[in-house]
What does this fold into?
Amino acid sequence: MTSLGPNESARNVSWSPDGRLAAFESFNDAGHSPMTTTHVWVVEADSAGIREVRLPPPNERFSTYLDRWVDKDTLRIRTTLLERPEDVFFLYRHRAGEIQGPVG
It folds into this structure.
Protein backbone atom coordinates (compact mmCIF):
# COMPACT_ATOMS: atom_id res chain seq x y z
CA MET A 1 0.00 0.00 0.00
CA THR A 2 2.54 2.59 1.11
CA SER A 3 5.81 3.07 2.95
CA LEU A 4 5.93 4.83 6.28
CA GLY A 5 8.83 6.89 7.57
CA PRO A 6 11.63 5.37 9.68
CA ASN A 7 9.98 6.30 13.00
CA GLU A 8 6.41 5.48 11.97
CA SER A 9 4.28 2.40 12.44
CA ALA A 10 0.76 1.51 11.30
CA ARG A 11 -2.05 0.27 13.51
CA ASN A 12 -5.84 -0.15 13.70
CA VAL A 13 -6.56 -1.10 10.08
CA SER A 14 -10.27 -0.96 9.24
CA TRP A 15 -11.89 -1.92 5.92
CA SER A 16 -14.91 -0.08 4.51
CA PRO A 17 -18.12 -2.14 4.38
CA ASP A 18 -17.67 -2.82 0.63
CA GLY A 19 -13.96 -3.69 0.99
CA ARG A 20 -12.92 -0.95 -1.46
CA LEU A 21 -11.15 1.28 1.09
CA ALA A 22 -8.84 0.62 4.01
CA ALA A 23 -8.21 3.14 6.76
CA PHE A 24 -5.37 2.97 9.26
CA GLU A 25 -3.55 5.08 11.81
CA SER A 26 0.11 5.98 11.48
CA PHE A 27 1.97 6.67 14.68
CA ASN A 28 5.29 8.51 14.94
CA ASP A 29 7.34 6.77 17.64
CA ALA A 30 9.69 9.76 17.85
CA GLY A 31 6.86 12.26 18.31
CA HIS A 32 6.93 14.71 21.17
CA SER A 33 3.21 15.20 21.77
CA PRO A 34 0.36 12.69 21.63
CA MET A 35 -1.79 15.49 20.21
CA THR A 36 0.27 15.59 16.99
CA THR A 37 1.73 12.10 16.44
CA THR A 38 -1.15 9.91 15.18
CA HIS A 39 -2.87 10.38 11.82
CA VAL A 40 -5.57 8.56 9.86
CA TRP A 41 -4.90 7.53 6.26
CA VAL A 42 -7.27 6.06 3.66
CA VAL A 43 -6.08 3.93 0.74
CA GLU A 44 -8.03 2.37 -2.12
CA ALA A 45 -7.62 -1.41 -2.18
CA ASP A 46 -6.99 -1.60 -5.93
CA SER A 47 -4.45 1.21 -6.28
CA ALA A 48 -1.47 2.89 -4.72
CA GLY A 49 -3.52 6.05 -4.11
CA ILE A 50 -3.36 7.07 -0.46
CA ARG A 51 -4.72 10.12 1.31
CA GLU A 52 -4.07 11.51 4.78
CA VAL A 53 -7.23 12.64 6.56
CA ARG A 54 -6.51 16.11 7.90
CA LEU A 55 -8.70 18.23 10.13
CA PRO A 56 -9.85 21.60 8.81
CA PRO A 57 -7.79 24.69 9.76
CA PRO A 58 -6.76 25.76 12.33
CA ASN A 59 -6.67 22.21 13.74
CA GLU A 60 -4.97 20.38 10.85
CA ARG A 61 -1.86 19.53 12.90
CA PHE A 62 -3.74 17.61 15.62
CA SER A 63 -3.81 13.83 15.84
CA THR A 64 -6.71 11.91 14.31
CA TYR A 65 -7.93 8.43 15.28
CA LEU A 66 -10.22 5.90 13.60
CA ASP A 67 -13.68 5.61 15.07
CA ARG A 68 -15.80 3.68 12.55
CA TRP A 69 -17.06 3.50 8.98
CA VAL A 70 -20.47 5.18 8.63
CA ASP A 71 -21.01 3.79 5.12
CA LYS A 72 -18.86 2.57 2.21
CA ASP A 73 -17.38 6.05 1.58
CA THR A 74 -17.66 7.88 4.92
CA LEU A 75 -15.29 7.45 7.85
CA ARG A 76 -15.91 8.91 11.31
CA ILE A 77 -12.70 10.04 12.98
CA ARG A 78 -11.99 11.16 16.52
CA THR A 79 -9.70 13.88 17.82
CA THR A 80 -9.09 16.07 20.84
CA LEU A 81 -8.94 19.84 20.43
CA LEU A 82 -7.32 22.28 22.83
CA GLU A 83 -10.56 24.16 23.51
CA ARG A 84 -12.67 21.03 24.21
CA PRO A 85 -11.80 18.47 26.88
CA GLU A 86 -14.01 15.72 25.41
CA ASP A 87 -13.43 13.75 22.20
CA VAL A 88 -14.63 15.47 19.04
CA PHE A 89 -15.80 13.64 15.90
CA PHE A 90 -15.52 14.54 12.21
CA LEU A 91 -16.87 12.85 9.07
CA TYR A 92 -14.49 12.23 6.17
CA ARG A 93 -16.01 11.53 2.74
CA HIS A 94 -13.35 9.86 0.63
CA ARG A 95 -14.83 10.28 -2.84
CA ALA A 96 -15.29 14.03 -2.33
CA GLY A 97 -12.09 14.39 -0.30
CA GLU A 98 -14.00 16.45 2.26
CA ILE A 99 -14.07 16.53 6.03
CA GLN A 100 -17.00 17.92 8.02
CA GLY A 101 -17.40 18.61 11.67
CA PRO A 102 -17.37 18.58 14.48
CA VAL A 103 -20.40 16.28 14.40
CA GLY A 104 -22.39 14.62 17.18
Remarks:
- DSSP finds no helices and eight strands in the chain.
- The mean pLDDT is 87.
- The chain has one domain: 8-103.
- Residues 8-103 form one domain.
